[in-house]
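Sample intake sheet
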Amino acid sequence: MTIADLARHVVGKIEPAQLDYLDLVTVDREGRGTAPGSRNWTGGTVGSGVQPWVLADLVYPLLAGTFAQVLGATAFARLQRRRWWRRKREVPPSTRIFLTPEQVERARTACIEHGMTLGLSEAEATMLADAVHGALQRTGDE
């Protein structure tokens, strides 16, 4: 599974109306274009009560922090090295992630921790962590 696939699953599960905006953010993060207003767009709220920027703009930092904790600094640094010249702190959305069943379980807790670090409430972080965990479990079962 790529990070972009996982982000798409999470946003689609929580607020499908944000998928088009996530596509713009993904293109921007991949370095293939610029998402109009993606860095500043924060208008409105969605059905879950979570701000739209949480779903689209924070999903990649949330996943990157989660995988850095679960995979360890060395493995995460190898993922980053591919695009070091473009974005020093970001792993591109097209990066494939491979986790053991034990790492999948640890990812849920790490996701909650990183979500709260990014300013989410515990309920919001848990909602996102459950979506991430579900997608990772389903991928592991296939």
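Comment: Helices lie at 3-14, 19-30, 52-56, 59-71, 73-81, 101-117, 122-141. The chain has seven helices and no strands.
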